[in-house]
Every structure is written in C-alpha cells, then in structure tokens.
Design a protein that fits this description.
alpha/beta; 8-stranded parallel beta barrel; 11 strands; binds 1,3-dihydroxyacetonephosphate; binds zinc ion; binds sodium ion
Length: 283
C-alpha cells in the first residue's frame, strides 16, 4: 500500500506540476498531511529523515502509514529523506518502504556514483524509487548540518553523467535553496536549472523549499522541478500555534485539545503548498 514515487513524479513531469513532499514528525503531522492532500485530491509524499524513524520507531511509522493508506483509500509514498547508511536503507526497504533518497552528496563524484548505483540496483528489485543529490545544499535538516562554505551548486554536464551512470529515478539539484528558513530573500539560479533540465530527462527535486517565495517555487516548477520538499515551515506553524494556545490556555493539559490549533496551522501551510505546486486534483 505504500507506493513508490516513480509514477507520481513521472505524471507531474508530463503535466508540468510538482508533487509536494512534507516532512512528518509525529502522528499529528501524518494525519494532517494525509487528510489535506486527500481533500484536495493531491498526490503527496510523506518524508522522514533518519532521526524521525529513530524517534517514532521504523515499524510504528511504516504501520501507521500503511493503515492510513488502507483505511483512507488514499495511496501515497512514505519516503526516506536524506538517508546515508546503505544497510539502514536496505532494512527499511525490506520493511516496506518504496521511495528513498540516498544522500551521498558529501562524497567525491566517483564515490557518490558508486554508492548510489549500488543502491539503485538493490532498490529497483523491490520497485522502490531512488532520488539522489548532486551538488550540496547548505543549511540544517535535523542531524544534517552543512556549512555554507561546504555547499556547492549542481553542474549541468556532471548531472547528465551522474544520472546516466547511476540509473536514479529523480535528481535533487542544488541551485541556491537551503534547508531551514532564509535570512534574506533566497536566490535561485534559474539559468542553471534550465541547463540541467536540458541535459537531464528525469524528474528534478527542489530541497529546502521552506521560505522560498511562491513565485520562485512556481518558476522552478515551470523549469522542470517535479518534487518540492517542505519541512521547516510545518515545524514552525505547528510549534507557533502550540505556544500561542498555551499562552491563551495555560492550564491546558489534553493533547487531543491543545494539538487542534497546531494541526489547523499545519493544514493551512499544506493547502498553500499544494496550490503552489499545482498538484490539486492530480491524484
Ligand atoms: P526546508 O528545511 O526548507 O523545509 O527543506 C526541507 C527539505 O529539503 C527536506 O529534505
Ligand atoms: Zn532536503
Ligand atoms: Na528552506
């Protein structure tokens, strides 16, 4: 019941929209992402970093998502976001995951290719889709912290070779976006994105979409981005609403009540991102 991202992203590529990928952290995020996406009939990817699987427990997370997909009659992908450990990825695929990102972007080019190609061979036996990154995003995503001086943009010609030699299904590009929020306005290198699109025919992925103005996300979709990753904006909406609610009701002690405003706040962000991605009604 957990599907791969392959068909979703191919359809998005053909029809010029993007599938939103939301990072989930707990039961409430899972519920709100699924309910909102289902309401809007949008394809969706639920992404979780290694630390989220550790926090929730891999079996818990997989089974909650399988149950959700079945009882809601809503197919979606539960995705491995920024996973690096090959054994860990293999175990999670064997446990039922069908959509992975192997992040070997911190390795030199040849090593990156070798690691990813092996992962592709393994994953495709299970019909699991594989995303990988060439170049490197700055910023922080859970345990993954990349200093700006260590970030690097994706080279279009290298991207072509990388895709051909690894056999990946989608490519995460580094064109100026970063994990977390931005201090000033982010600058995306659209020219570079267009060149990559020219040379590479698989779906392209935009990481670090939190904090990027709507118009820029839309433009990147028009230039070939088929998956848009959002984590930080959901975290902020959730915790801000929670803090606000406790301020108004300092004696609140029932999570089923005090989580409600936080869930509503996340739903608004999700709705917004689905609209920006153009994925509503594309299920
Ligand atoms: P943000 O931190 O900008 O939401 O990026 C999310 C992301 O890229 C997850 O992989
Ligand atoms: Zn990311
Ligand atoms: Na960001």
């Amino acid at each position: 019941y957990l599907i791969s991202s392959q068909e979703m992203l191919k359809k998005a590529q053909r029809e010029n929209y993007a599938v939103p990928a939301f990072n989930i952290h707990n039961l409430e995020t899972i519920q709100v992402v699924i309910d909102t996406a289902k309401q809007m009939q949008s394809p969706v990817i639920l992404a979780a970093t290694p630390s989220t699987y550790r926090y929730a427990g891999t079996e818990y997370l997989i089974n909650i998502c399988k149950t959700a997909a079945q009882t809601k009659h809503f197919p979606f992908a539960l995705h491995l976001d920024h996973h690096e450990d090959i054994k860990d990825i293999q175990a999670k695929i064997e446990a039922g995951i069908r959509s992975i990102m192997i992040d070997a972007s911190h390795h030199p080019f040849e090593e990156n290719i070798n690691i990813v190609r092996k992962m592709v061979e393994f994953s495709h036996k299970f019909n699991a889709s594989v995303e990988a990154e060439l170049g490197r995003l700055g910023g922080q995503e859970d345990d993954l912290i990349v200093d700006n001086k260590d970030s690097a943009f994706t080279d279009p010609s290298a991207a072509k070779e990388y895709v051909e030699r690894t056999g990946i299904d989608s490519l995460a590009v580094a064109i100026g976006s970063a994990h977390g929020m931005y201090k000033g306005e982010p600058k995306l290198d659209f020219e570079r994105l267009a060149k990559i699109r020219d040379k590479v025919d698989i779906p392209l992925v935009l990481h670090g979409a939190s904090g990027i103005p709507d118009a820029m996300v839309k433009k990147s979709i028009s230039l070939g981005i088929c998956k848009v990753n959002v984590a930080t904006e959901l975290k902020i909406a959730f915790s801000d609403a929670l803090k606000q609610d406790f301020k108004i009701n300092p004696d609140a002690n029932d999570p089923r009540h005090y989580m409600q405003p936080a869930k509503l706040a996340m739903a608004k962000i999700i709705e917004d991102k689905i609209r920006i991605c153009g994925s509503a009604g594309k299920l």
